[in-house]
What we know:
Number of strands: 15
Number of domains: 4
Helix content: 40-55%
Radius of gyration: 64 Å
CATH topology of the largest domain: Heat Shock Protein 90
CATH architecture of the largest domain: 2-Layer Sandwich
Amino acid sequence: MSLPKRDDKTPTAETIRLVDENEQLRTLLEAALEENAVLTGDLDRLRDRLAEMGNEMRLQREIAARDEQYIKQIEPTFTRQDETEEKLRVAFEELQVLTEELEVANSGLHRNNQELDARVELRTRQLKEINQALRGAEASLRTVADLVPDLLWRCDGAGQADWFNQRWREYTGLSSVDLAGFGWSQVVREADRESIRAAWNAAVTRNESFEFEHRLRDQTGDYRWFLVRVAPLRGEDGEATAWFAAGTDVHDQRSAMEALQHSELRFRTLIEGMPQLVWRAADAGDWTWASPQWCAYTGQTMEEALGWGWLAAFHTEDRPAAREAWKRAPALGVVEIEGRVFDAAENRHRHFRTRALPVRDARGTVMEWLGTSTDVDDLLQLQERQSILVAELQHRTRNLMAVVHAVTSRTLIDSPSLDHFSNRIEERLSALARVQGLLSQRDSGTRVPFDRLLRAELSAHLDISAKSSEGKIKLSGPADVALRSATVQTFALALHELTTNAVKYGALSQDSGRLEINWGVERRGADQPLLWVDWLETGVSTMPSADAPARGGGYGRELIERALPYQLGADTTYELTPDGVHCMIRVITPA
């Protein structure tokens, strides 16, 4: 379908000017013709009057020739004839003047007619050229309208469509007849139709341009997003006489933008879910963005952190190193900062490890820097504690090896046979293993409690619950009385020796025997707590005499009476009563 032709309602300015000039020339010609007609009429009347006067003179001369007398009689008539001739002469002169004026007027009229014909011919030729140019421009516009990838259409003043370019028909597969009026709305996605009609009605009412985005169905049935811009063509009164619209396919851009937004949303969600503090910076450490974690952690607002404001969250002693790291960044291609960052929740600085890498474009130019700040304060404390634990472990290992060596040597001395040595050394090493198990299982910052050590050693030799229910064992004392780590191994060996002696030779080896263990905490001086342990065996019928050799070789008694006081600074007593063994131990515990 061709572009709509221009009608008389929309003439061009040049056409209007030419028509006005033609009208003026026509008016001048009509006036000249009227003046010429008046002059011609006067000339005709003058000729008629002159003819009448000539007839009168001829008649008078004929009469004068026949009758002289008559001539005398009509002498006054001659006088009147002279007067008439004089009038006739004056009339002829006037006629001559009028004839000359008429000739001048006819010459001017002729020239005006020639000039008018030339101007009319010129204006006619210009009108033809303008019409040809308009037809050429119309053909060009129609060609351009069909070549552009946009959907172009025109509507009347009420918004009813009456023209569509070829792209519309190719895209929708519909004819101009099908699309006319509001027929084009049938290819609009149903969810968008109501809003589009409302937008059109509002634009027509306000007589204003507008734009919006909606989806249009192509001839395959798929929908694509279009950006539609609509503008009115206004008449001399300012009211819209027509509307022109253009629809640009923005589906790919919109899809890419939505994908970018989704990607950015996922990226932001990922960033905001990270435990690290994330930020973006331009060259030289000029921050352009800080994650919500940074603001929540440091207490800074986004505006306060931008630029070099983030440096205020660093410890004053670490700020020079941070600036120096940024100075070296372009050459190194990385930013690495070890510094303390203010923790607003704890109102203190914590150690952070900050690292950033550049983001480069296809040419390798640095566009920005992306960085993270990771809290390593706990890690550094753990590393420091690990060093302490390693040192303590080495110390304990050396002590354990010394204890093992001493226990092995003494067991070897007290063993009458290899089998006896094997049994005793296995028991004592098992006791040491249990102690190591307790030491390795203790929670961070806690110590091994006495009641747990005691119950672990007793449980290794008998069923405490069963013996307690039978009334053979009674345990009484507070729970969770902590022991110093350096005392646990020696204390455990002492408990082991007391337990094995009670099981083999003492109260737990006889039906009549009873074992009662009491403990508590007392203070020596103002602030030095002591753990006291009272080990009392009763009901033993086969107690040896005081001067009899020790049944187990005497290692347990020697450990209690000599090793504990020497190694632990403990106060100990060991007594063989007629009913059984009575042992008292007092040892310093942590405050």
